[in-house]
Amino acid sequence: MAITIAHHDPNLESDLGVYRRQFRLPACTKANGCLRVINQRGGTTPPASTDPGWAFEESIDVDAVSAACPTCRILVVENDSAFASDMFAGVDQAVAQGAKFISNSWIFPEAPFETNFDFHFNHPGIAFTFGSGDSGGVTQYPPASPYVTAVGGTTLTRANNQRGWTESAWPGTGCGCSLYEPKPSFQHDSICPDHRTIADVSAVAAGFAVYDTVPLDGSTGWFVADGTSIAAPLVAGMYALAGNPAPGTFPNSYPYAHPRDFHDITTGSAGPFSAGPGYDAPTGVGTPSGVDGLRAGDPYGSHRRVPESLRKAETASQARRSA
What we know:
With about 325 residues, the chain is an alpha/beta fold. Mean pLDDT is about 95; it is low at about 300-323. Helix 1 runs parallel beside helix 2 and helix 2 packs parallel to helix 4. Strands 1, 2, 3, 4, 6, 8, 9 and 12 form an 8-stranded mixed beta sheet that branches. It has helices spanning about 10-20, 50-70, 85-95, 230-240, 255, 310-320, and strands spanning about 1-5, 35-40, 75-80, 100-105, 110, 125-130, 140, 150-160, 165-170, 175-180, 195-200, 200-205, 210-215, 220-225, 260-265, 270, 275, 285-290. It is about 25% helix and about 25% strand. Strand 13 (about 210-215) and strand 14 form a beta hairpin. The protein is globular, with a radius of gyration of 20 Å.
C-alpha cells in the first residue's frame, strides 16, 4: 500500500504509533518492516521542507489506511513539493516500487491539457484512489482521470436500524461531469452522457480521528478531520483487503460490476448534485459493504446465487474443456 504526499513529516512514525496504540492496532514501524518512507527518487533522504498542512494530510492518510487495513505494509512517498511535476514523480515512484494500491489525497483544477498526464495512471493491475475533492459539486484532476477510482464522501450518523448507521452524501464532495475526460466504457449513467462522471465510490469523509504533532495553527495532538482525503485511503485499504487486482484490468471498473456489494446512498447532496437510488455523482455506486465489490470477477459476486441457467452452461463448458 503506497501513499503519495508533498514535503516531509518528521513525526510521522511516532504519531502513527500513538494512533495505532489508541485503537489497539498492531505496531507499524520502520524497524518491523511495516512502514517505509522514501522520496520521489526512491531514496531515503527526506525532502528539505516540512509543511504543517501537508504533515497533517500525511497523518490522515496513514491513520485511515491503518483503520481500514491494519495489516497492510505502508509505503509513503514524500515528494519535494506540491508542484505537479513532483507529485506525478511520486506516483511513478510508487509504481516503480511495485505498489498495487496507491492512495492520493491531492488535486489540481481541471485543465484542457490534463489528458496528457493520464499515462501516469494507465497501469492495469494497480488500484489508484483519489479523493474527489472538497469543493461540493466541482470536478478536479486527477480524480477525473478514467484510470483512477474517484472517491466521494459521506457522513455517518448513529441509527437504531439493522446496520446501526444512516449515511448521506457529504456536502463538500467534489463531483459532477469532467470538463475534458471522455466517459470510460464501464460508466453508463445519464448524468454525464459524453464525459467522465465523478465519483466512482464513496466512504466516510467526516468526523475522523487523526493524531498529528507537527503544529497546525498552533495545535498538536488529536484532531477531528473532514474531507475526501479521508475517504481515499480508506477505500485504498479496502482494495488491499480484497486482494491484488487481476492482471490487465483497471480496478476502478470493479465496483460497477458489483453494485449490490455497496451501500446505496440515497440522501444528501453536493453542490447541484444529489444522491439517489442507484449510481449518483456524489457517492458513485455507494460505500463498500465488505470488500467483494472491489475485486475483479463474476459480477454476481461470490456470495450471491448464480442463476441456474448460467450454472448449467458453466458446467457444460467445463465438461467440454476436460473431455
